[in-house]
Amino acid sequence: MDWPISLVEELAARRCIVFLGAGASAGCLSAMDGNSPPTWPRFLENLKDRIPAPDRTETIDSLIQREKYLDAAEVILNKLPAADFTRAIRELFVQPRYEKSSIHESTLEIDPKVVVTTNYDDIYDAYCRTGIAQDGYNVCKYYEQHLATDLRSPVRVIVKAHGCVNDISKIVLSRSQYFRAKQENHEFYAILNSLFMTNTLLFLGYSMSDPDIQLILENSNIFSKSTHPHYALVGDDIIPDIEESMRKAYNIEFLKYRAGQYDEANRCVQDLAEQVEAMRASRLT
Q1: Which of 51, 131, 240, 272 has the maximum number of C-beta atoms within 10 A of its C-beta?
Q2: Residues in a beta bridge with 18
Q3: Is the torsion defined by CA of 27, 122, 114, 181 positive or negative?
Q4: pLDDT in tens, 211-231
């Protein structure tokens, strides 16, 4: 893959924000059983199966099948006791003790000032504690108040836009939860939108059908006009009409690997990390 030189330059200058989606954790393996974190459909199916005395779950099945994941989550959470949801999150995301993925390794090598993730797991957060930044890494969740302070300090920042497994009661899963989070934490989301408007974004591990990227695109200001595009690494099975629509609406340039060839995607991101390191080194000579 030929990475755009402008993207490499912006990463080298730490003016680019890296967005990590579910695909970034999909390559993580459990130290317990070798399994990976569930994808969106598997996660929702698992939650659905925990509903006590399930009835009329065909509605949920239909929503999942049509990739209406936010709506499926809404129906599930209306039927699933909070204690059972907490137990599911621990069983699926905490107890397996996942190891870092190749994309996590490459992202840490790229060493951006800001990483934003919509993932609930804390795999990348834990891995960053081994990172190279001498000023360390702060994790800021959407309901915390120190994002502005972190951005104005030399510390690297990991922004958890939809919460984290270490506070399950504040995880954002459904559409109504997301809008409530925005309503009650408008300062955080205002800062986040400002970041989107003033920095290049690189999306890694996202499918365009993922509900979290849809929320980000629909509810942020990244469509502000700029000659600098944002970038997303995606499989080459993206529907051309969808690609063209998102390019026009959100100024996103899609960089493609062969669909389903995740090792190829990992190598591409590793190559990007090496180019960024080389450019930084060249500026020191």
Answers
A1: 272
A2: 115, 202
A3: positive
A4: 667 667 665 555 566 778 899
Q: Is residue 38 within 8 Å of residue 88, measured between CB atoms?
A: no
DSSP letters along 206-267, please? Answer: --TT-HHHHHHHHHS-TTS--SSPEEEEEETTS-HHHHHHHHHHH-EEEEEE-TT-HHHHHH
Contacts 24+ apart (CB under 8 A), 80-84: 80/47, 80/50, 80/51, 81/52, 82/169, 84/50, 84/52
Percentage of residues in the chain having pLDDT higher than 70: 93
- Rounded to two decimals, the pTM is 0.91
What's the alpha-carbon Rg for the chain, to the nearest Å?
19
Q: Is the dihedral of CA 21, 23, 24, 30 positive or negative?
A: positive
* E strands in the chain: 16-20, 114-117, 137-141, 156-160, 200-204, 230-235, 252-257
pLDDT digits (tens, 9 = 90+) for 192-207: 888 888 899 999 998 7
Structure tokens at 97: 């003790």
